[in-house]
C-alpha cells in the first residue's frame, strides 16, 4: 500500500484570518489542548493496537492508494458505477454500487453476527457484546458500515433502532479513536525528529470528524447514551447539564402508536446543536465546535447557523472535515422539512472561509485536492425511502468505497385491513412526468372522482392529501367552485391550531361538515382520532404505510365496530400515477406494485 505523498502544487485553500480573531484551536488542530486541559491526559494515545494495512480505516482514510483513488474518482465524476442487486433472505433487497474502476469481484459482503472482524480499538472491543448485533438489519449492514461505504437503509423500526444506533455509535467512536491515536503518535514523532523527515499528514482542516443528525433532542440523548456505553469514560464533564437540556419524561400514552411515541416522546425540540470531545479518560459534553470530535445536531439547528440572518454569525467551517455523517429517523426529517437536511449536505466538506489556525502541513492530501466529499461516509436510517432520499443518494452519496441501499420486501398495508371487508379501490391516472403530476392529479380528482362522490352522497368523507400545496389548491377549489358550492367541508392541516382541530372534528362528527380535508403532516404530528368516518379518499398515497392502516383500520374500522356504518357501505378510493411507485409498493405490497403501475387496466379492487 502506497502512502499518498503531498503534491507540490496544491492550492492553499485559506491564506489567513481576520485581524484580532480569537484562536479556537492550536497549531496541531487534530488534538489541541484547550484552556481546560492542562494535564497530560490528551497527549497519551490509547494503545498500540494498530490493525495493519487490511484495516478499512487505513485503506480508506489514512493510506489510500494514489492510483486506485484516482481511478475511482474518475469513475464517479463520469457517473460510472457498477451495480449489483442481491436478495438477503426473503424480506430484504440490497442494491450495491461501487465506482466502475473498483477491483471488487463480488460486491455482496457476508453478514456479521459479532464484532471480531471489525478492526475495533482494543478498549472498544472489550465494551461491546453480541447483543449489539442482534437485529437482522444490523447484521446485514455492519460489513458495509465498517468498510466505510455509504448506507441508505429503509425499514428502520422502533424495534431495530437501538441495534442500529449502537452499531453507528461503535463505528463513530472507533473512527475518532483511530484518528486520535494517529495524530498523537505523529506528534510524538515530530517532537523527536526533523519535521522535514516525517510525513504526518493525518488530519482534516478542522477537528470535528463525526456529524450525527437526529430530529429531536431526545434521540440525540439516546445517541449520547450509546456513545457512553461504547467508550465507557472514567469521567463525563457537563453530563447533567446535557441531560437537563436534552431529556424529558417519555410519552407513555398507549393510545398513540409506537413509532409516534419514539419520535415525539421525551424532549421533541428539533432545533439544537452541541458537540462532544474525547480525551483518553473523559468524554466532554458542550465542548467548543472547533475543539470537538463529534457534533450532535438537528438539521434545523445547523441550518440556523449556516443561514443565520446576521452574516457575521454564519458558519459552516466546522463541517469542512466531516468524515462520517449519521442521520437517523430521516423519515422524521422528511416530514419536518427536507430542505433543512439539503442545506446541511450542501455545506459539507467545503473549503474553509477562515484559517482557524490550520496547520496545512498536517492536512491529508485528498483534503487539499478537494476530494473530501468523495471519502466521507454517509449513513441514513429511515422507516421508508422517498424520491427525495433517492435524489440524495444520487447527488451526495458519492463515496469512492461505494454505497449500499437496503429496502425491505413489503407485504402491503392493505393486508392489515383485509379482514374488515372494506372495499379498497385504487385508480391510476395518466401523468407524463413528475413535474406535470400535480396538474394531472388535480384534473383527475376534480373531473373523475369528486363529481361522482357528490352525486352519490359525500356525508362522512375524509379526503387525505399528502402535499400541503395540493391541500391549498383543493381547499380553494372547494371554497370557490360551483361544483362544491352546496357542500359543507372542514379542514385540518399542518398548521391548524388545537382549537381549530377540535372544531373541525366536532363538526365533521355531528354532520355539519360532510367532508373533511386532512393533510399527511397533520396526521404525522397529531395522530388525531377522527370519528364517524364512512369513506376515505386518498388524493395520493401516504409516504408512511402505517398511515394507511390508521385511516382504514382506525377510522373506518371504528365506525364499523360502533355500528355507524356497515362494512359493505364503507370504502376507500385511492388515486395514483406511475410516479407513486415507492409509496404504492408500501401500501399494496411488492408483489402487486409492478402490475398496477404498468399493467393492463387502471382500476384495482381489494377487499
TrEMBL record:
Stated name of the protein = U3 small nucleolar RNA-associated protein 25
* Organism, scientific name: Pseudocercospora fijiensis (strain CIRAD86) (Black leaf streak disease fungus)
Q: Identify the residues that the record assigns to the UTP25 C-terminal domain, covering every copy.
A: 418-606
Q: Which GO terms describe its biological process?
A: maturation of SSU-rRNA from tricistronic rRNA transcript (SSU-rRNA, 5.8S rRNA, LSU-rRNA)
Family membership noted in the UniProt record: Belongs to the UTP25 family.
Q: What is the lineage of its organism?
A: Eukaryota, Fungi, Dikarya, Ascomycota, Pezizomycotina
Keywords for this protein: Nucleus, Ribonucleoprotein, Ribosome biogenesis, rRNA processing
Localisation per UniProt entry = Nucleus, Nucleolus
According to the UniProt entry, its GO molecular function terms are: rRNA binding; U3 snoRNA binding
* Ranges for region Disordered: 1-56
Q: Which Gene3D superfamilies match?
A: P-loop containing nucleotide triphosphate hydrolases
What does this protein do, in the record's words? DEAD-box RNA helicase-like protein required for pre-18S rRNA processing, specifically at sites A0, A1, and A2.
Q: Show the PANTHER family listed in the entry.
A: ORF PROTEIN-RELATED, U3 SMALL NUCLEOLAR RNA-ASSOCIATED PROTEIN 25 HOMOLOG
Query: Which residue intervals define the domain UTP25 NTP hydrolase-like in the entry?
Result: 148-404
Question: Can you supply one Gene Ontology CC term for this chain's record?
Answer: small-subunit processome
InterPro entries with a match to the protein in the record: P-loop_NTPase, UTP25, UTP25_C, UTP25_NTPase-like
Highest taxon in the source lineage: Eukaryota
Query: Its principal location?
Result: nucleus
Q: Name the residues that span the membrane.
A: none
Amino acid at each position: 500500500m502506497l502512502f499518498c505523498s503531498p503534491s507540490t502544487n496544491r492550492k492553499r485553500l485559506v491564506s489567513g484570518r481576520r485581524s484580532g480573531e480569537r484562536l479556537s484551536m492550536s497549531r496541531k488542530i487534530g488534538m489541541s489542548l484547550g484552556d481546560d486541559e492542562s494535564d497530560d491526559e490528551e497527549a497519551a494515545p490509547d494503545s498500540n493496537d494498530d490493525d495493519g494495512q487490511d484495516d478499512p480505516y487505513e485503506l480508506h482514510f489514512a493510506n489510500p492508494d494514489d492510483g486506485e483513488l484516482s481511478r475511482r474518482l474518475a469513475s464517479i465524476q463520469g457517473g460510472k458505477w457498477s451495480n449489483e442487486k442481491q436478495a438477503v433472505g426473503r424480506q430484504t433487497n440490497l442494491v450495491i454500487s461501487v465506482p466502475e474502476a473498483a477491483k471488487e469481484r463480488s460486491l455482496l459482503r457476508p453478514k456479521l453476527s459479532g464484532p471480531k472482524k471489525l478492526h475495533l480499538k482494543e478498549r472498544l472491543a472489550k465494551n461491546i457484546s453480541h447483543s449489539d448485533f442482534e437485529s437482522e438489519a444490523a447484521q446485514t449492514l455492519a460489513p458495509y458500515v465498517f468498510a466505510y461505504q455509504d448506507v441508505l437503509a429503509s425499514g428502520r423500526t422502533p424495534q431495530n433502532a437501538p441495534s442500529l444506533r449502537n452499531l453507528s455509535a461503535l463505528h463513530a467512536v472507533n473512527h475518532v479513536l483511530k484518528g486520535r491515536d494517529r495524530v498523537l503518535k505523529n506528534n510524538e514523532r515530530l517532537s523527536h525528529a526533523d519535521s522535514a523527515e516525517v510525513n504526518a499528514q493525518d488530519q482534516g482542516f478542522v477537528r470535528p470528524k463525526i456529524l450525527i443528525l437526529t430530529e429531536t433532542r431526545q434521540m440525540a440523548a439516546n445517541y449520547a447514551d450509546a456513545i457512553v456505553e461504547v467508550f465507557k469514560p472514567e469521567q463525563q464533564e457537563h453530563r447533567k447539564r446535557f441531560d437537563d437540556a436534552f431529556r424529558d419524561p417519555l410519552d407513555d400514552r398507549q393510545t398513540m402508536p409506537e413509532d409516534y411515541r419514539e419520535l415525539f416522546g421525551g424532549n421533541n425540540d428539533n432545533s439544537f446543536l452541541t458537540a462532544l470531545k474525547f480525551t483518553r479518560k473523559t468524554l466532554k459534553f458542550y465542548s467548543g465546535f472547533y475543539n470537538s470530535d463529534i457534533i450532535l445536531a438537528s438539521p434545523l439547528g445547523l441550518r440556523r447557523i449556516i443561514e443565520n440572518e446576521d452574516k457575521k454569525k454564519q458558519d459552516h467551517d466546522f463541517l469542512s472535515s466531516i468524515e462520517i455523517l449519521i442521520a437517523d429517523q430521516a423519515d422524521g426529517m422528511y416530514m419536518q422539512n427536507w430542505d433543512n437536511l439539503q442545506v446541511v449536505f450542501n455545506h459539507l466538506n467545503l473549503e474553509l472561509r477562515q484559517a482557524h489556525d490550520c496547520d496545512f502541513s498536517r492536512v491529508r492530501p485528498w483534503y487539499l485536492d478537494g476530494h473530501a466529499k468523495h471519502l466521507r461516509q454517509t449513513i441514513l436510517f429511515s422507516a421508508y425511502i422517498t424520491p427525495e432520499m433517492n435524489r440524495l443518494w444520487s447527488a451526495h452519496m458519492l463515496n469512492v468505497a461505494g454505497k449500499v441501499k437496503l429496502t425491505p420486501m413489503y407485504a402491503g398495508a392493505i393486508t392489515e385491513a383485509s379482514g374488515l371487508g372494506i372495499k379498497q379501490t385504487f385508480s391510476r391516472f395518466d401523468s407524463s412526468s413528475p413535474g406535470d403530476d400535480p396538474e394531472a392529479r388535480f384534473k383527475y380528482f376534480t373531473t373523475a372522482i369528486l363529481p361522482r362522490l357528490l352525486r352519490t352522497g359525500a356525508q362522512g368523507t375524509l379526503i387525505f392529501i399528502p402535499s400541503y400545496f395540493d391541500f391549498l389548491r383543493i381547499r380553494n377549489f372547494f371554497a370557490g367552485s360551483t361544483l362544491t358550492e352546496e357542500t359543507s367541508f372542514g379542514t385540518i392541516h399542518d398548521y391548524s391550531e388545537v382549537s381549530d382541530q377540535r372544531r373541525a372534528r366536532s363538526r365533521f362528527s355531528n354532520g355539519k361538515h360532510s367532508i373533511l380535508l386532512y393533510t399527511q403532516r397533520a396526521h404525522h404530528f397529531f395522530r388525531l382520532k377522527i370519528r364517524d368516518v364512512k369513506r376515505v379518499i386518498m388524493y395520493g398515497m401516504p409516504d408512511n404505510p402505517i398511515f394507511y392502516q390508521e385511516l382504514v383500520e382506525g377510522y373506518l374500522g371504528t365506525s364499523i365496530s360502533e355500528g355507524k356504518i356497515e362494512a359493505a357501505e364503507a370504502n376507500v378510493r385511492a388515486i395514483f400515477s406511475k410516479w407513486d411507485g415507492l409509496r404504492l409498493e408500501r401500501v399494496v405490497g411488492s408483489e402487486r406494485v409492478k402490475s398496477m403501475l404498468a399493467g393492463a387496466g387502471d382500476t384495482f379492487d381489494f377487499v
